[in-house]
Structure formats: C-alpha cells, structure tokens
Design brief:
With 247 residues, the protein is of the alpha+beta class. The chain has six helices and 17 strands. Helix 1 packs across helix 2. The chain starts with a strand and ends with a helix.
C-alpha cells in the first residue's frame, strides 16, 4: 500500500516527518532510481526506496513499558538540559513517549515507534483507562469526590467523569481513573476540589500495570498486551459510531 515518502522515512527511524521532508528536499531519497519529491507516495514493498544510495529498511516496531521516576521530563530532548525519559531506555529504534507524565509525576509510561498504536492509546476518544494514585495535602471530601465523579469545571473546560476510590483512612490517598490526557489533568482536578497533590503516580494503563518493573526500569510489551490495548480502543470506537448512527 502506498504511503507518503516522508511517513515511510519516519517509520524507518530516519527522522521525524518534518525533518524527513528536509531530507527528501535535499535530494537524498530515490524511488526506483528517481529522485523523490516531498509529498510523493511509494509502496514500501513494491518500490525500491533508497536513502543516500542505501536501501530504506522498515524499522522494527517496539512497544516498551517504563516505570518512570520523578525528575525526568517526558520528551525526546530538553533545551534546559534536564534528564529525559529517553535517558532511561536503550534501544536501536527511534521510540518516543505515548502521551506525557509531568517531571514530578512517576509511574507507567509507554514508548513506541508505532504512530497508530500511540494515537489509539493516548487519544481520549478511545477511552483507555489511565489510573493514578495520589497523595493529597488535604483530605478529599465527599463533596469533592462527587464533583470528580461528575466532572469538574477547569479553565479549559469541563472534565469527563472520573472514577474515584479512597485508599485507607484519612482521605489523603486517592486512586483516580481518567480517560483524557490534558496537561496536568489529575493535579488540576484534585486542586479544583480542594485537595492539591503532594505526590502522583500512574499505576495502570488499560490492563497494563507496573508489576515486576522497578522504578527507572522498563520491559518489552508482549504481543498479546499490545493487541489487547488495540482491541479495547477499537471496541470503544465501534460502540461510539453505533451510538451516533442510532441518533
């Protein structure tokens, strides 16, 4: 199946799509012996694609689960020189984080070089559960819990209803499940109901947990695990389309 050549270069780990366009514009890429142009399409199986005279090989898809410590930013590089999650992962392929965790938030983070998989896991439309454990400065009240479960008005709009469970006594340990990935969403939600976060950890994503993965370490996802996430997202999307069709 034909795809834009810059997408094929990105999938092969050459560079991002934008940087791949610069590589193509520089005349370094050829399709069947002819110099390629930005926006041109090619079939990675049927066409001969070369970069600087060497065959372009499709990059192996990687799916990694990292137990992120605090103090690491979720980005490929940081202009301020802070440590990034990429400092914790050593693979040959050019993987990138699926969504974000704040520098001060620890826990489960996926990294991949599969763009479609990343989109389906991170986009709120597919409603993949993101479960967090929070220590809060002030006990979460019954009213605050009800607000979180109904939706909280923030500066960028109303949040979706969350699932909330108090851990132990005292109301200062909270487990909260959300589906959206807005910046600092859990911290802002808890602050809005009077229980600002002291410490935050993502402990689950879909059916994936941190079991067996120490902080700062990572493991490869099994094929069944990645497929389960794909199927869960696809099922949610089909259900939504059916509901729209009935209206």
């Amino acid at each position: 199946m034909k795809q834009r050549i810059q997408k094929l270069l990105a999938a092969a780990g050459v560079a991002s799509r934008r940087k791949s366009e610069e590589v193509i514009a520089a005349g370094r890429v050829k399709i069947n012996g002819e110099t390629a142009s930005v926006g041109q399409s090619a079939d990675p199986v049927a066409d001969e694609i070369t970069l600087d005279g060497e065959p372009l090989l499709a990059e192996k898809k990687r799916y990694l689960l990292l137990n992120k410590p605090t103090g690491f930013v979720t980005t490929l590089s940081d202009p301020e020189g802070r440590p990034t999650v990429m400092d914790l992962v050593e693979v040959d392929e050019r993987v990138y984080p699926v969504g974000r965790l704040d520098a001060e938030t620890s826990g489960l983070l996926l990294l991949t070089n599969d763009g479609l998989f990343s989109h389906r896991v991170a986009h709120p439309r597919f409603e993949v559960d993101k479960v967090y454990k929070a220590d809060v400065a002030e006990p979460l009240s019954a009213q605050g819990k009800n607000r979180l479960e109904s939706g909280v008005e923030l500066e960028d709009g109303m949040t979706r209803p969350a699932t909330v469970r108090l851990i132990g006594r005292g109301g200062k340990k909270v487990q909260i499940t959300v589906h959206e990935g807005k910046k600092r969403i859990v911290r802002r939600m808890l602050e809005a109901v009077g229980s600002p976060v002291v410490a935050l950890e993502r402990i689950q994503l879909g059916d994936l947990t941190l079991d067996g993965v120490k902080q700062g370490e990572w493991r490869e996802l099994a094929g069944a695990e990645t497929e389960a996430l794909r199927q869960s997202a696809a099922k949610t999307n089909r259900r939504k389309r059916q509901m729209v069709g009935r209206r």
